[in-house]
């Protein structure tokens, strides 16, 4: 099919963002002039900040998974939606298995993701729990027949995380470099979250550049396949190289799935982080930013200043070596820092700076 552009009318987008409910309109009018100016870009016929959704094939999420769109009013009035409250304002992240092929990279990657989450969900505290092995979760696992790769059962991981959820948690999310499957009939899933339980799990395995290569070191030879209770097959399991692209994709998945826990459904208004994706190509097309409708939803849930949030994201991108462990690779000076690979974020940073300019105008 030819690329199709889903272009909503100005009136439709305005209603999705502001609502026609007098109470919600009044709420909107209490926002600062700069915030209203930025959010109003959603329904401007010509703007260079928020593009319409493009559909590239019948396999794209919005075609293959029809859903009712969620505007701001529907989000606001959702009785099942949970929001942070005093005593429950922490996002906990639990890594399952190793995230990097050395302790140094593993620790650096965790700190980069923590910093990103604290900027994205500005105003909340992000805490990492001690990493656990796959065996600690007691989840089912299998070898995927298409990739010959190990996979762990997403639902079983969610049940494990639910039991581990601290009392002061808004949510707890698991991250792993091992591929996931949600049920026996499914090939794989990037991530899964439960809004009502405040838990999520997502895998970055398929974001490595060599995942679909015949040379992928994570593939399991038939002679190595063990029984369903022998977790030793995960010992020293391969972790892909932490590239800028992998970090960018990881951050995107992390914020998308946590967004669901805040009650944001898949976006059908504009190109947005909260769009659904069926495959990696579609996920890569999705921007890292929230459209104005989804940004208003998240602001309503957390209560941040939009400009302060954007400034925190720029600081995270600029702070390439902040809070990272020290590396001493071969042929390097002692105490050389481990740089954060942020090349893939540079275009997004330029976009954020344009938004800040609109807010400050």
Descriptive overview:
With 361 residues, the chain is an alpha/beta fold. Mean pLDDT is 89; it is low at 322-335. 36% of the residues lie in helices and 13% in strands. The strands form 4 sheets. A 5-stranded mixed sheet has the order 4-3-7-10-9, with helices on both faces. Strands 5-6-8 form a 3-stranded mixed sheet. The longest helix has 18 residues, at 103-120. β9 and β10 (199-203) form a beta hairpin. The protein has 13 helices and 12 strands.
Question: What is the compact description of this entry?
Answer:
The chain is of the alpha/beta class. The chain has helices spanning 10-18, 22-29, 33-39, 61-64, 72-76, 103-120, 134-137, 154-164, 244-261, 280-285, 292-302, 306-318, 346-360, and strands at residues 4-6, 53-55, 90-96, 125-128, 141-143, 150-153, 169-176, 179-181, 191-194, 199-203, 326-327, 336-337.
List the helices and strands and how they pair.
Layout: E1 4-6, H1 10-18, H2 22-29, H3 33-39, E2 53-55, H4 61-64, H5 72-76, E3 90-96, H6 103-120, E4 125-128, H7 134-137, E5 141-143, E6 150-153, H8 154-164, E7 169-176, E8 179-181, E9 191-194, E10 199-203, H9 244-261, H10 280-285, H11 292-302, H12 306-318, E11 326-327, E12 336-337, H13 346-360
Parallel strand pairs: 3-4, 3-7, 6-8, 7-10
Antiparallel strand pairs: 1-2, 5-6, 9-10, 11-12
Helix pairs in contact: 1-11, 3-13, 6-9, 6-12, 12-13
Order of helices and strands: EHHHEHHEHEHEEHEEEEHHHHEEH
Q: What is the SS-derived class? A: alpha/beta
Radius of gyration: 21 Å
Shape: globular
Helical content band: 25-40%
- Put simply, the count of helices is 13
Gap between N and C termini, in Å?
41 Å
Average pLDDT, to the nearest integer? 89
Query: pLDDT below 50 for ≥5 consecutive residues: which ranges?
Result: 322-335
